[in-house]
Amino acid sequence: MSEQSAEAPAEKPEEKQEEKPAAPAAETAKAEAPAKAKRITVNLQPGPEAPKLKVSQYKLGREQTVSFVKGWLLQAMKKKKDDAVFLFLQPGESIGFAPSPEQTIGDLSDAFAPNTKLSITYAFKETWG
Facing residues of 46 across strands? Predict the structure, then answer.
């Protein structure tokens, strides 16, 4: 029984010592975690048979959707609203894919462009798959 009573007081001071450093560690983790950029640099690259934009880099808010980019691109190219425009991402050396219209630029950037520079290829004809 004397062993048990000796162990119990030893645990209490260790718990108190662990609680004090935990608060500063949490604060430093918050300070070290990179803040997400409010605006993402989007590089719009023309696909096959698509005209090139005069300015290809734009800063968009994280909350902007792929649907917004499509609508804006149609307007910039002086196309009709019901014309088809296809957007593709090709992260790294992998096969490209078309993001869904409701995906946000911020989510795509977090997943495929950790440096907050997202490259999107646009075309007016379906080029893959």
Answer: 122
Cβ atoms of 97 and 18 closer than 8 Å:
no
Distance CA 42, CA 125 (A): 21
Query: 104: which strand partners?
Result: 65
Q: What is the pTM of this model?
A: 0.67
Cα distance between residue 106 and residue 125, in whole Å: 26
How many Cβ atoms sit within 10 Å of the Cβ of residue 45? Answer: 15
Q: Which pLDDT belongs to residue 57? A: 94
38 contact partners, CB below 8 Å, separation of at least 6: 61, 62
| Cα distance between residue 37 and residue 34, in whole Å | 9
Report the share of the chain in percent with pLDDT over 70.
67
Q: How far is CA 107 from CA 27, 31, 32, 83, 95, in A?
A: 26, 22, 21, 26, 19
**Nearest-angstrom CA–CA distance, 129 and 117:** 25
Residue 33's pLDDT is 43
The answer to whether the CB of 40 falls within 8 A of the CB of 111 is no
